[in-house]
User: Fold this.
Amino acid sequence: MKRQHYNIVFFYLEIAPYFIACCNKLFENYDINIHVIRYPVNNEAPFNFSTQQKINLYNRKNYNLSSLVALVQKLNPSIIICSGWIDKDYLRICKKYYKKIPTILTIDTHWRGDIKQHIGFLLSPFLLKNKFSHAWVPGNTQKHYTKKLGFKDNEIILDFYSCDVAYFSSIKNKITDQKKQNFPTRFIFVGRYYDFKGIDKLWQAFIELQQEKPNDWELWCLGTGSIEPINHPKIKHFGFVQPEDFLEYARQTGVFVMPSLFEPWGVVLHEFAAMGFPLLASDKVGAVESFLEDKKNGYIFKAGDINSLKEKLQEVMQLSAEQLNLMGEYSSQLAQHITPKIWADNLMKLV
Assistant:
């Protein structure tokens, strides 16, 4: 019997390689075409994309509302997935298809309980619930917020974000033996050089620790942004690095640090878990709920608290290579909890 064909339309802001990996997984089991309307690549994260022919990319900047409506009509979607509610034209089109096909809102926002969110809670029936049949969120923190917006349990899907687990696990397989013989005493940070990423707090904590208790550890930083890279003999900067070039950096570093002051999710934590790294992350990183168990595969510290971060950095430095390798093994196990296959299956259940 011939399989049914589906056209899937994504309204996106910025896309990243992990999203493409998830889309590629759909092609293994389903007869589909994917159409992604998205904004240009961010200058601080100029990812290269390798897409299959069935993934069709459209530049949002080339469409006004009428031409976007015409494009979607031509595509004849079986389902629409919309990234957030910033783009009002995206919302207008979702309203046209509401109750005709599944229309899914993706949310990675945490519930903060501030005035703005309480207003959103009151307005949701008129702004969101009349446009979207479902919500797709990365974790339970976002599910809590989504329920406050009026979505019921059976209208909420989990595990919206997944890294390319197979790829990053393959890196782990290439570096595990070497790390068992000689574990690298280097921390690694991967992210944008912005205030909310906590990169300056990490530099400060690391430098103070080096001054108070000199040691052999280094800090390698991969990324770019508005904050000027600090100059220190044990802190090295490598700029933006494409995910396909991670192998050598993963081989030469030992512990991943994510000091964000606020991070709705943070797929990079999943990536380093899959590569078998012990993890250090702040309590404001959403992905901690899935990929970091305190004292089992790393440590959680208080966001923005220099002393808390220094304490956890020091605890890592005092661990043996054997303990660090065991932590990394547990990270790789946790990384399997969310995969592109789970992502693809969750989506197709609605179609």
